[in-house]
C-alpha cells in the first residue's frame, strides 16, 4: 500500500516514532471517544484531545476519532504527523485544534476504525511497543536495535564459524 511505502521505512529506521492515541480524559471505552474527525470535500478537520501514555517523544500518531454516528460504526483512525499546525503535545495530552489533514491519512476506510482498533488492541500489552509504552523497556528513537544497522554482508564478514566437531579416531 502507499501508506506502508511512505511510513514504514522511516519507522523501521527510527527516524519517526509512532504512538497510538485512543484514550481520552473521562472516557473509559473507545466506543465513546469525543475527538472529532469532520470530513468535507477536500480535508478532514480533527478536534479534541487524547491522553498521552508514553514519555517517549513521538513524531506521529494513530488517532482514533469520531467520524460518524455514535457507536462502533462511526470511528476512524487517522495517521497524524504531530508537527502539523494545530497539534499541541503536552506532558500527558495531545490536543488537536481544528487540525486539517487530507484523506490519505485515513487508516483503512472512513468509519472502519473499530476494525482497526480490534486488530491493534491485542498487540499493545504483549509487544515491545507495549512494554516501551508502559515504561518496562527504554528505546531511544533513532538508535539501532541489535544488528538492524548492519547489512547482511557486514554480518557475514564478521561471522566466525563454530569449530567443527571433534572426530573420534580411535576406531572402535
Structure keywords:
4 helices; 8 strands; 172 residues; 4-stranded antiparallel sheet
Architecture overview:
The protein is an alpha+beta fold and 172 residues long. Helices cover 23% and strands 26% of the residues. It contains four helices and eight strands. The chain has helices at 2-13, 113-126, 128-133, 152-158, and strands at residues 18-21, 36-39, 44-51, 60-66, 75-81, 87-89, 93-101, 106-107. The strands form two sheets. A four-stranded mixed sheet has the order 1-4-5-8. The protein is elongated, with a radius of gyration of 22 Å. The protein starts with a helix and ends in a 14-residue tail after the last helix. The mean pLDDT is 78.
Short structural summary:
This protein has 172 residues and is α+β, with helices and mostly antiparallel strands.
Amino acid at each position: 500500500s502507499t501508506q506502508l511505502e511512505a511510513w514504514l521505512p522511516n519507522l523501521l529506521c527510527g527516524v519517526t516514532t509512532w504512538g497510538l492515541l485512543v484514550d481520552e480524559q473521562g472516557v473509559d471505552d473507545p466506543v465513546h471517544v469525543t475527538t472529532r474527525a469532520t470530513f468535507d470535500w477536500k480535508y478532514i478537520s480533527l478536534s479534541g484531545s487524547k491522553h498521552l501514555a508514553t514519555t517517549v517523544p513521538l513524531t506521529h500518531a494513530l488517532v482514533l476519532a469520531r467520524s460518524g454516528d455514535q457507536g462502533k460504526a462511526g470511528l476512524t483512525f487517522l495517521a497524524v504527523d504531530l508537527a502539523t499546525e494545530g497539534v499541541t503535545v503536552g506532558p500527558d495530552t495531545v490536543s488537536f485544534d481544528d487540525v486539517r489533514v487530507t484523506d490519505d491519512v485515513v487508516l483503512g476506510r472512513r468509519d472502519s476504525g473499530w476494525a482497526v482498533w480490534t486488530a491493534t488492541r491485542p498487540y499493545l500489552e504483549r509487544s515491545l511497543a507495549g512494554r516501551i509504552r508502559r515504561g518496562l523497556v527504554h528505546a531511544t528513537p533513532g538508535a539501532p536495535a541489535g544488528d538492524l544497522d548492519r547489512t547482511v554482508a557486514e554480518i557475514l564478514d564478521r561471522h566466525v564459524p563454530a569449530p567443527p566437531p571433534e572426530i573420534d579416531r580411535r576406531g572402535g
